[in-house]
Amino acid sequence: MKNVRHLFDISDLTTKEIDELLRVAEDIMMNRGKYAGACARKKLATLFFEPSTRTRLSFEAAMQELGGSTLGFASAESSSTSKGESVMDTIRTVSSYADIIVMRHPKEGAALAASQRSVVPVINAGDGGHCHPTQTLADLLTIKHYHGRVKKLRIGICGDLKFGRTVHSLINALTRYENNSFVMISPPELGIPNYVQHEILSPRKAEWTTCQNIEDCIGSLDVLYMTRIQKERFQSVEDYERLKNCYVLDAAKMMAAKKKMCVLHPLPRVKEISVDMDDDPRAQYFTQVTNGKFMRMALILKFLEDADKGYCPPPAREVIKNKFICENPACVTNAESDLVQLCTLRDATHNVYRCEYCESKVKKPF
């Protein structure tokens, strides 16, 4: 099968590539006409097995502004998977029609699985509670446009840090830039996963602390990244009901914030940001939506260009095949029976192996 570059996680992009994407996105913002026909006769397939409004429409708008066209579906019920077809077969079929695929799926690692059958680039638009790299790129563009930089910032991340795929990707990206520090604001049950702590924050010597109340730390922040408590990720309705409204940002709390602090949110919001915040110039979450389109335009251009050049960087880690079974029920390997099991050694000091699809810790390969 043709060797093609894909985007599963923000780690698939070098820091230099992220900086270049930011530069191109900013150029698109200033010179939209210059890019109007850049993707003429190219097709983008949007395969959304999980509901989405902003991300799907953002990609479709991005491709259309580049002069290309779109095809796809907005829910699993609209696809042949509702008839029992595997995601793998769906991807192989759709990659015959399109030049690039954007996919969202409730199973963690679904984009990586899809890449094994696709002959065109696959971009992950969210895979369960795992990653959301294109949202992170939109976040970085918003931070840079607001502060003029993506380094030397104190970033508060509030809400669901355990299942929040945007959070995991954002931490991964921002820890690459010098002197960024973090305040993790969450109840203990929704703290950041161990792998984010031990394999991203610690190796990069990132400064971070925890906090359980927004009021206790808001005054020190340059960025406050709010996330919703995600009902769809909970196995217990009771746990969700207990935690769903534990954080609400409103105008009263913002009185203690810096005048140049910005508030971000990947959306949709539920009640975690009060509507009395919307006219505050520090509220940048709707600007994120606009920036997401420009960032995705830059991303589409890059991955189509890499595909045309046949550029595909080697994997960052040695992959071990069929030596374990992932026990994470949310992992795509537990839904797609014909997948090759993949794992990688992530921490040699502590002998930590992880499923390459969902990044859950697995037992040492036998």
Topology readout:
Layout lengths: L14 H16 L12 E6 L5 H12 L3 E5 L13 H8 L5 E6 L4 H6 L6 E6 L5 H15 L6 E5 L6 H10 L6 E5 L8 H8 L5 E5 L11 E4 L10 H7 L7 H4 L7 E3 L20 H25 L10 E2 L20 E6 L4 E4 L5 E2 L4
Parallel strand pairs: 1-2, 1-3, 3-4, 5-6, 5-8, 6-7, 8-9
Antiparallel strand pairs: 10-11, 11-12, 12-13
Helix pairs in contact: 1-10, 2-10, 5-6, 5-10
Verbal overview:
- By secondary structure, the chain is an alpha/beta fold.
- The protein has 3 domains: 10-132 and 290-309, 3-Layer(aba) Sandwich (Rossmann fold); 135-286, Rossmann fold, CATH 3.40.50; 320-362, Roll (SH3 type barrels), CATH 2.30.30.20.
- The chain contains 10 helices and 13 strands.
- Helix 7 (194-201) links the parallel strand 6 and strand 7 (207-211).
- Helix 5 (133-147) crosses helix 6 (165-174).
- The longest helix has 25 residues, at 285-309.
- The protein starts with 14 loop residues before the first helix and ends with a strand.
- The model has no long low-confidence stretch (mean pLDDT 90).
Mean pLDDT: 90
Output the CATH class name of the largest domain: Alpha Beta
Kindly report the CATH topology of the largest domain. Answer: Rossmann fold
As a whole number of angstroms, the C-alpha radius of gyration is 20 Å
Overall, the morphology is: globular
Share in helix: 25-40%
Strand order of the largest sheet: 7-6-5-8-9
N- to C-terminal distance? 29 Å
Largest sheet: 5 strands, parallel
